[in-house]
Amino acid sequence: MSDTATEPTIIAAREGAAGTLLMNRPKALNALDLAMIREFQKAIDAWGPETAVKLVILEGAGGRAFCAGGDVRRIREYAIAGDEASVESFFAEEYAVNRGIATFPKPWVSLIDGVCMGGGIGLSVHRTPRIVTEKALLAMPETAIALFPDVGTSYILPRLPGAVGTWLALTGARLKGADAVHAGLADHYVPSDKLAALRAALVETGDAGVIARFAETPPEASFAAHRAAIDRCFGLDTMPAILAALAAEKTDWAAEQITVLRRMSPTSLCASLELIRRGAKATLDQCLEMELALGRNVVHRHPDFREGVRSVLVDKGAVPTWMPATIEEVDPAAIGRMFD
Ligand code: QUE
């Protein structure tokens, strides 16, 4: 999926009172590569101290995606080549951007009008205001490719209501825009046909307060009916306990969750659950450190990540062969060692 070399993958501009950042790799759903991450860092460094910039506006090009995640195909290639330095650069620099956004000294306005997963969540979730439309689709899908919720979401997810964050991390459940507001991943619901006018008002005034003129009350969350069951099941501390609790629910929804979980990397599920439980008691900086250490072990010392990216993204739709193959075979001590 190559984009033309002449077209920049991040278009950074000064417009009125705003600094604007357009993620511009539409054929790859604006998935983040290292060059894009470095452009983010430059914008953070330049616009943080620049008094004429009152806020930053972040958006995705192409009409389908905000940002589908990190360039995990490339990470897999580095892993196969044994290129640990390149993997380290990618994650360390990406997480530094997440930290830079979290501490950015003015509003960081994310206009989420399409797919926003993984790395895209990391570019938006750490600062307000986060705006979603009816076309937004948010998810943390990493357990499907044997990764884990990173980009600082091990700090964010345990702080969402009840066990919603654990449910999102383990199942990769997709949230529509309204759902994302109810889950605590977004702040304002704005219909997509008002987004251009909102953007113009932000550029003109440099005042995030104008969002109130465009925001609407979001429709009820699609997961509202399952909130109690989410908390009952996903609030538990081991994967076998979560699966047993889901089985005891005896509902179609719970059976569906079991089916989804059984497709994911068993190692990744157990590591992700442990990460979120540790993240509940840690600072954002500690979470990013933990994610960096876990990433090294997952990418270089475990076969599931390569297999996951191959099956889901390279040979699209292939059934992955996980090692070990079942949750019941995962050794908790081995999961603990992945954090060292
Ligand atoms: C899990 C993930 C990712 C994913 C799918 C998953 C991810 C990611 C992409 C992605 C999607 C479309 C693209 C692309 C990457 O998909 O992180 O380049 O064109 O970046 O199930 O973690």
Please tag this protein with its features:
alpha/beta; 2-enoyl-CoA Hydratase, Chain A, domain 1; 6-stranded mixed sheet; 4-stranded mixed sheet; 10 strands; globular
Give an account of the 3D structure.
With 340 residues, this protein is α/β, with parallel strands linked by helices. It is 46% helix and 11% strand. Helix 2 packs across helix 14 (304-314) and helix 10 packs antiparallel against helix 11. It has one domain (1-340): Alpha-Beta Complex (2-enoyl-CoA Hydratase, Chain A, domain 1), CATH 3.90.226. The protein starts with 9 loop residues before the first strand and ends with a helix. It has helices at residues 34-47, 72-81, 84-102, 119-122, 153-156, 164-171, 177-183, 195-205, 227-234, 239-249, 252-263, 266-279, 284-301, 304-314, 332-337; strands at 10-15, 18-23, 55-60, 65-67, 108-112, 115-117, 130-132, 137-139, 175-176, 188-189. It is globular, with a radius of gyration of 19 Å. Bound molecules: 3,5,7,3',4'-pentahydroxyflavone. 3,5,7,3',4'-pentahydroxyflavone binds at residues 28-29, 31, 68-70, 72, 117-118, 141-142, 144-145, 147, 312-313.
Please describe the biggest sheet, giving its number of strands, its sense, and whether it closes into a barrel: 6 strands, mixed
Average predicted confidence as pLDDT: 97
Structural class estimated from helices and strands: alpha/beta
Number of strands: 10
Cross-sheet strand order for the largest sheet:
1-2-3-5-7-10
Could you spell the SSE succession in H and E letters?
EEHEEHHEEHEEHHEHEHHHHHHHH
Output the CATH topology.
2-enoyl-CoA Hydratase, Chain A, domain 1
Binned, the helix content reads 40-55%
What is the domain tally?
A: 1
Beta-strand percentage range? 5-15%
